[in-house]
Amino acid sequence: MIKRFIIAIILIVLVCGGLVGFNLFKEQKIAEYFANRPRPTVTVSTVTAEAQSWKPGIEAIGTVGARQGVDVASRAAGIVTGILFAANDQIEKGQLLVQLDDEEEQATLIAAKANEARDSQALKRATTLVDKGVSSTSALDDAKAALDASRSVMERVKAQINLKKIRAPFSGTIGIPKIDVGEYLPAGTVIATLQDLKVMKVDFTVAEQRLSEVHIGQPLHLGLAEDAMGYEGKITGIDPKIDPQSRLVSIQAEVGNSDGALRPGQFAFVRIDLPQENNIIALPQTAVVQSLYGTYVYMVAEDDKAPAAADGKKKLVARQVFVKVGRRFGGKIEITDGVKPGDVIVSAGQNKLTVGSPVTIDNTVNPADTAEKPGA
Question: By its UniProt entry, which NCBIfam families does this protein fall under (predicted)?
Fold first, then answer.
């Protein structure tokens, strides 16, 4: 009985050992197969690193506004008798926009002028009588006071008539009328908006760390899209106080608007120009890979270990190079360490690469070509 049990155990051990040995042998052969199997060649696009001139800048988001812009309102109450403008008219400073009913004031002015003329004649007679010694100086003083009072009334009526005429406070583009002829306007009613669109202002903020790089008169570029910064301007104001909550400082600039495309309230991209820098190495952002282990690029180099191809050329492989990056602009990213001029860097196709992958270069379609060069 014991002998059979021992034999069974030995058979089980042999079977298990055979299975384990077979699996180990199989895995070894599979590993040898893949180790000896040639790695597939990956087609990539590349760029050659080179020293460039870069005009850096401070980028921000701003809001466009008119340099001068107001809601034109009536200063007096009255019925609208005339609207003398249409939407989007170019208005000159002092131009009459709206006429309110002033018949009562005009009638009062006629009476005031008559009183002023009467008191003026009375003063002349009083002066003549005093000169002849027929009248006292007190009568002359009364005549002067009466004339001054009449003139004061007349000027007050003229001022009331002027209040019935709503004029443009400055030159600009008038908006859509908000009133109708025959409508009664209470004092303070807005009739339209008036905006000077020839020169626009833009309000934006920058971080307090960049404040030392900003000054009055500094040039900048503005655009309604990040890749279309076609408007030029300059900084006109820097807030002396930094927001203690956001640590941002408010800045205002003026920008020319010759084509009239900029409108108050628009969202805009702003780039403050800084002095040009030379010998900067910058790569397309598509070439730089960021991971948990660091930031790196794939550099294309000759494989010294592999035999040359039939045409005598060395085979190319991808080498992983960790880099330090700096500023970004226009689809480019500055490389401060890890890449030198002349290095060939993969700009597209990295997702198919591993360290040492054989590569072939095809730059017929290269996304890096669409990236804007620094300083452009």
Answer: RND_mfp (TIGR01730)
Beta bridge partners of 48: 344
Question: How far apart are the C-alpha atoms of 36 and 29, rounded to whole Å?
Answer: 10
What totals of helices (H) and strands (E) does the chain contain, helices first?
Answer: 3, 22
From the CB of residue 132, how many other CB atoms can be counted at a distance below 10 Å? 8
**Measuring CA to CA, which residue among 257, 243, 230 is closest to residue 204?**
243
Domain boundaries, the chain: 39-53+278-368, 58-67+190-273, 108-156
Q: What is the pTM of this model?
A: 0.61
Supply the DSSP string of 248-303, one letter for each residue.
EEEEEEEEE-TT----TT-EEEEEEE---EEEEEEEEGGG-EEETTEEEEEEEEE-
228 vs 25: which has the higher pLDDT:
228
Contacts of 319 (CB under 8 A, 6+ apart): 298, 299, 300, 301, 355, 356
Q: CA-CA distance, 291 to 335, in Å (whole number)?
A: 16
C-alpha distance from residue 137 to each of 116, 118, 141, 144, 181 (Å): 21, 19, 6, 11, 54
Q: Is 263 in contact with 257 (CB distance < 8 Å)?
A: no
User: Domain 58-67+190-273 class?
Assistant: mainly beta
Which tokens belong to 114? 């008559």
Domain 39-53+278-368 listed as CATH 2.40.420.20: yes
